[in-house]
Amino acid sequence: MEDWGLPDPLRGGAMGGNGHEPATAARRLAESTGWLLTDAAREITLKLEEALKGTGLRWRDYGVLVVLEADGPLSQQEIGRRLAVDRSTMVHVIDVLEQQGLVVRSRDRADRRAYSIELTGPGRTLLVEVLHPLTARVHSGVMARLTHEDRAHLNRILAQLAGGAPRPE
Amino acid sequence: MEDWGLPDPLRGGAMGGNGHEPATAARRLAESTGWLLTDAAREITLKLEEALKGTGLRWRDYGVLVVLEADGPLSQQEIGRRLAVDRSTMVHVIDVLEQQGLVVRSRDRADRRAYSIELTGPGRTLLVEVLHPLTARVHSGVMARLTHEDRAHLNRILAQLAGGAPRPE
DNA sequence: TATTGTTATACTCTATAACTATA
DNA sequence: TATAGTTATAGAGTATAACAATA
C-alpha cells in the first residue's frame, strides 16, 4: 500500500503484472531524480565557474559574499554552516576573499574567539556591478530552455526538496 | 531535521515590489537555481550513498549497472561517456564491479582494442532484488515532501535542463 | 594517424585532529 | 570543559599525459 510516488522504472521489475516494458538506461536514468539533479547541478556549476573565471573567484566564494551581503557580519563558522562548508575549509576561503579586499576580519567584541567577517565597500561594489550580473546571465542562459512558469516551479520545488520542508496539505 | 545550509537570503522572504531593495532576497531567489540544484543534489546523493553503504557499491557504480542492464554490453569508454566519467577513471570503476562478479570484461570481437562489458547473472539479480528497491526507497523518502504533480514536474523540468533540449514553443 | 584501455602521476578538494586563545 | 579559528596532514577523487595494442 505504500505509494513511493516514484518513477515506475525505479520500482524495480517487481510489479506483479507482466506489462514488462524493458526499461532503457536512458529512461531509467532520465526518471531518476537523483541522476537528473546531479547532472543539472554539474552543468550549471560548470557554467558558473567558467563565467567567474576572470574574477579570480569560485562559485562558492560568491556564495560567501551573497550571505554576507544579506546577513553579515557573521563568523567564519556561521558562514560555513550556511554553505555546508567545514570551518577548517572556511579559513582558506576567507583568506582569499580578504586578500582581495572583498571582506575584512575583525574580532567579535562579544566573543573574542570569533571573527566578525564583513563585506568591504569594494566587495559590495563587485557584487553589484560584476558578480550579480555575471551569475544572472548564466542562470538566464540555462533557464532560457524553460517556460517562465517552469522556472518558478523549479525553484519552488527545489527549495522544498533541499529545505526539508514537509509537503503542505 | 537536517539543515542543508541553504543561504537564508536565497530562500525567499520579503518581496519588495518597488525595485528599491538592494538586490537581495527577491532577485537573488529568482537567480539561485544553481544553489538550489547543488543543495538538492548533495542531499539526495548523501542519502543514496548512505543507503548503498552495505552493498559495497557507490551511487555511480549503480549507474554503471543500470546502463548495462538496459543497453549493455558496452565498452568502458561508452559507459563513461553516458555517466560523464573519464575513461581513466572508468578503469577503476569496472575493476571494482568485476571483482565483485557483477560484470565481466571480454574483448570486443569487432574492435579488439575495446572491452565488451557485460552484466553477469548475479549482477542482474543484485539490481532487481536489492539495488532498485533500495534506491527507490531513498527517492520516495525525498520525494514524499512533494505533491504527485510536483514530482512529475520536477523530473520533466530537470530533464529539459540537463538535456539541453530547447524549450518547445 | 587515431583510438581503447591502462598506468603513473599530480592536482584539487575536503575533512580530521591537534593546538591557541578565549569563553 | 567547551568553542572559534588555525594549521598540518592525510585521504578521496579526478584528470592529464604517456604507452601498448589495435584500428
From TrEMBL, chains A, B:
<dbReference type="Pfam" id="PF12802">
    <property type="entry name" value="MarR_2"/>
</dbReference>
<feature type="region of interest" description="Disordered">
    <location>
        <begin position="1"/>
        <end position="21"/>
    </location>
</feature>
<dbReference type="InterPro" id="IPR000835">
    <property type="entry name" value="HTH_MarR-typ"/>
</dbReference>
<dbReference type="InterPro" id="IPR036390">
    <property type="entry name" value="WH_DNA-bd_sf"/>
</dbReference>
<protein>
    <recommendedName>
        <fullName>HTH marR-type domain-containing protein</fullName>
    </recommendedName>
</protein>
<dbReference type="InterPro" id="IPR036388">
    <property type="entry name" value="WH-like_DNA-bd_sf"/>
</dbReference>
<feature type="domain" description="HTH marR-type">
    <location>
        <begin position="30"/>
        <end position="163"/>
    </location>
</feature>
<dbReference type="InterPro" id="IPR039422">
    <property type="entry name" value="MarR/SlyA-like"/>
</dbReference>
